[in-house]
Amino acid sequence: MFKGNFSLNLSALEGLFKAKMPPLIGVDISSSSIKMVEISEPGKGLYRVERYAIEPLPKDSLVEGNINNLDAVSDALKRCHKRLGSNVKNLALALPNAAVISKKIMVPAGQTEDELELQVETEANQYIPFALDEVNLDFQVLGPAPNNPDDIEVLIAASRKEKIIDRLAVAESAGLKATVMDVDLFAAQSAFELIEGQFPDHGKDQNIAVVDVGSSIMAVNVLRNDQSIYMREQPFGGNQLTQEIQNKFGLSPEEAEAAKRAGGLPENYESDVLQPFMDMMGLEVARALQFFFTSTQHNQIHHIVLSGGCAAIPGADETVGKRVQVNTLIANPFVNMTLSSKIRPKSLTQDAPSLMVACGLAMRRFDP
Ligand SMILES: Nc1ncnc2c1ncn2[C@@H]1O[C@H](COP(=O)(O)OP(=O)(O)OP(=O)(O)O)[C@@H](O)[C@H]1O
Ligand SMILES: [Mg+2]
Asked: What per-residue confidence (pLDDT) applies to 21?
């Protein structure tokens, strides 16, 4: 079944994607920063983090996944790559979830590749709200249909060409090359698979909510046996905390952002600003789980994996776990990897929750 080893086939655009994969860097262009991760495989199934880097993005250069300022993003990409210090120039990038429509369809088994392609296009026409020549269509056969042996299940993904073109363009103007185009959600799911070994029975038949609290969006993706059974995004994130710090202590956005991570704020910060924010985070997670229970037939979450920059706030796991009474773990997809001697383990552990997408993308290098 779908294991997240899916990347959009851009061959229609660039003819890039059939060749065997050379080394590549996973690059997450997110609203607050660019994150890069490079992973190697020194032994079969043994991974090693070679390098990683995080470079802040100027405010509003990326809004809701749309690149608003191509120059700003490409400059930051260049800086990030320089900081990374790698000679690898091939990148695996991802599209925001909202730029991609994906849908499972059933089609008769036993068709040729050409027939299948035609059928997928016909089906896609029915639910994609824009002209087919504006989209890139890709599909992956998932396997036999669960209810009918004569059918197969196919996952279709359609994305607006302009979103892909923007990402190819920023890479190119930074002197780099996008060779894989994935989707945020799928990349994060691949990273999740590096974590699930920590759950009893590897999480089999359990509902595991991956809750990502970033700078502006909180995304909840409930997985069961490595398949997404529920997904919801809502506005909530670390920007609210930064804003509060600015207001309360009269700091600039940059100062507030730095103080939040480095500490050194007045004594009443914890009680007056941080604690209310943490309580709100617990409440938002509780609400999101309620939505999950009311809109599916499920009534239990077995574990929560907390990711995104806000998961790095000390005590985030405890606050959320206590509020919703579910075992809560801070995401670290590198937990079973060795580290290059240049990486400080403590820094990586701190940054790991916000590197889920970049890590999942870096792992694309090892896809068969
Ligand atoms: N150590 C830390 N302590 C407190 N907050 C942190 C820490 N590290 C990161 N953050 C906060 O996390 C947020 C960034 O998280 P992340 O990188 O996951 O967001 P993003 O992916 O860019 O945003 P979004 O997912 O909303 O598009 C910022 O608000 C930042 O201040
Ligand atoms: Mg994010």
From this structure: 58
CA of 217 to the centre of ligand 1 (A): 10
Residue 92 has pLDDT above 60, yes or no: yes
Statement: residue 89 has pLDDT above 80: yes
pTM: predicted TM-score of the whole model, two decimal places: 0.89
Its domain, for residue 205, covers: 198-331
DSSP 52-101: EEEEE--TTSEETTEES-HHHHHHHHHHHHHHHT----EEEEEE-GGGEE
The letter for the amino acid at 184 is D
Say if residue 57 is in the same domain as residue 129.
Answer: no
One domain for residues 76 and 166: yes
**Among 55, 95, 261, 310, which residue has the most ligand 1 atoms within 8 Å of its CB, making it the best to mutate?**
310
Where residue 138 sits, what CATH number does that domain have?
3.30.1490.300
Q: 89 C-alpha vs ligand 2 centroid, how far in Å?
A: 23
> How far is residue 140's CA from residue 123's CA, in Å, rounded to a whole number?
14
**Phi, then psi, of 301 in degrees rounded to 5:** -115, 125
Bridging pattern class, strands 62-63 and 207-213:
unpaired
DSSP bridge pairs for 62? 67
User: 73 and 170 in contact (C-beta within 8 Å)?
Assistant: yes
Which ligand is in closest contact with the Cα of 184?
2
Burial status of residue 252 (CB atoms within 10 A of its CB: 0-12, 13-18, 19 or more): exposed
Domain of 67: which CATH number?
Answer: 3.30.420.40
The model's confidence at residue 145, banded by pLDDT at 50, 70 and 90, is: confident
Q: Are residues 279 and 171 in the same domain?
A: no
Instruction: Give yes or no: residues 221 and 121 share one domain.
Output: no
Decide if 45 is inside a domain.
Answer: yes
How many domains does one find in the chain?
A: 3
Question: Is residue 172 domain-resident?
Answer: yes
Q: pLDDT value at position 4?
A: 37
